[in-house]
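User: I'm writing a tutorial on reading structure tokens. Could you give me a worked example: one chain, its sequence, then its tokens, then a sentence or two explaining what the tokens reveal?
Assistant: Sure. Here is the example chain.
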Amino acid sequence: MKPSQKIKQNVVNQIAKTTLYENVSELMKMQQIYEAGIKEIRTKLEILDAEFKVKHDHNPIHHIESRLKSPESILKKAINKDIPVTERSLEENIHDIAGIRVICNYVDDVYKVAQLLTDQDDIRLVEVKDYIANPKESGYMSLHLVLEVPIFLSEGSKPIHVEVQLRTIAMDFWASLEHKLKYKTDNTVPEDIKEELQECAKTISELDLKMQNIHNRLNKKRV
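And here are its predicted structure tokens:
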């Protein structure tokens, strides 16, 4: 990170800390609501996975991870995006306060799970970014969905956004290591390392396709 960027980030951090104390109660209330959103989507995914296992003798989901942005992280993002720190503004402009990562066994499973989830009546697809069909320049691959799901509270239902990332085991392996490398190098990865990471991503993509093909061939023999 450049010195000017570090100074800017330090300023952002200081402002976020100051604003945090002023808005902590409101942000904690928001966190409780978004935590409910995570539980809602996670339950839907677990039910779909169990049903798929019974019908097709195959679990499309390997495992599920979830995370909730901390109040300080929410404020930092709001300040960086120059948006008002109000409940309505945060809900409209920050769609990854609640996040779920779905690790699937095969590429076809990624799209199947996404389809089954978004086909549900109470789910609205807000945004989709397909980094599997169109990987990022770094080599990153994943299917990103922003979903709107109703949360039922004592005063009535409230629609909230939950970001769902779906990827294969191989894609997750690459993304996890790439994230750690960027963190260790303060987000300034040397060009030669970037090229090697891109090559690794291509190799992983080829591996995913081969494993998918083997899975399909074995399934045909069983039918």
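What the tokens reveal: DSSP finds six helices and five strands in the chain. The beta strands are 61-68, 98-104, 124-130, 143-153, 156-168.
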